[in-house]
Amino acid sequence: MTASISDPVNDFVDTRFALLPYIDELRSADELSRRLGFAVRPRRVRVKPGKSAIVAWQREEPSRLGEFDGWGFTAVLTSPDKLANARRRAARHGQELVVHEAADPRSAGATGAVLVTGGVLADPRIGKHVARTLDHLGGDLRIIGYNPARRLLLKHTPADGAPEFVRIAADSQIHLAEAADRWQRAELPSLPVEFVGGRDTATRSPWWGTGDLSDRPDPNVAEEVGVIIAELHRGGVSDTRALPDDEGDPGESAGVQADKVGASAGEDGRALDSPLDQLETTSRSLVRLLPERETDIVGLLSELSRRLGPNRGLGPKRELREIHGDLSPDQVLLANSECRIIDLDRSGYGPIGMDLGRWIAACRVDSRLHELEHPFIDGYRSAGGEETDLGAWTAWAILVAALEPWRSCSETWRDETMRIIDLARTALEGNAPTTEVAP
């Protein structure tokens, strides 16, 4: 690490570090509702310190004007140019931005700031993609998720067809379609992904199943998922295998070495971001959110860098495997005795511990899912899952998701985040089972 963990980064941060006015309003249901003039609940917030902030909200009561009137965003913009651009983009789709007020420039650094509100179709990054996609969708539409300036998730029920899941994103989803194709070719249980209207920012898949594993925990299904993930890891190996011994500098950070190994993972898949880079970025934000826990956070980062660094979980002798990238019980759809694993948008080549750690982390953070941890590992082991440091990877996965309570605008985010940090320490210090190659 070349910089202090307390150095600023462009990441999600608490109000006191945002260098912007109005942030308290964005995360408070009462204050945001008062500002908008109707009852809403903030769903997701994103902040770039001193630059911008945006929150997605949903009306508490269904709108009589339709589904798309029930969701929207409120944002803090920091320059006249940004406001003009946002207004121009919204106008192209018949939308208007409501300008609430402008703050004293001194309260937002040197640029000043303005608070604005718009509907989903006026979203500064995905609004145009949503509008274009809607031209190809008839029938009933229901919004099931909105991450502002990132993605919109819909349940689409055509007038004369079966319902489907539609994802509209700010960036190309070619990698998602390619991952789904690899899973289909490998005969792994997932769902096909097709583009909507010939554009690579919108995809559709069948609306499948009666629920997911997080809502209906079933240890038998968890064990089956473990077997499936072992097959995934065994079947996909990066074109760039391990670095020769003389190419790995023991003094390099694990993130740098992982980047070297994964830089040319091949056309059939993509190398994922360095896990330790992700952890360092998240840790910086955690320290600013909870400065009283800095010692604990820095200690966890140091220990994880040691256990997952060179010659360990991310060392030059470790192969990168194809992984799901965001594995958890809520990514497993259920229908009778069958399952499908979905949300492959983070799929690519990476350390197998990322998948295992994320699954275990989800089971430990949510008490309803405790019973799914060991059956999953048992299934993974029975199918020949490889050895890895489960304690370290579980702690890593818990920490990289530690900002979730703040991002999701939870009123109890502080207590939740404190508990998450404690869970990461417990995972790192505990004797978590390590998978071994089955005989």
Automatic annotation (TrEMBL):
Residues 182-379 form the Aminoglycoside phosphotransferase domain. Residues 238-257 are annotated as: Disordered. InterPro entries: Aminoglycoside_PTrfase (IPR002575), Kinase-like_dom_sf (IPR011009). This is Aminoglycoside phosphotransferase domain-containing protein. It comes from Brevibacterium sediminis.
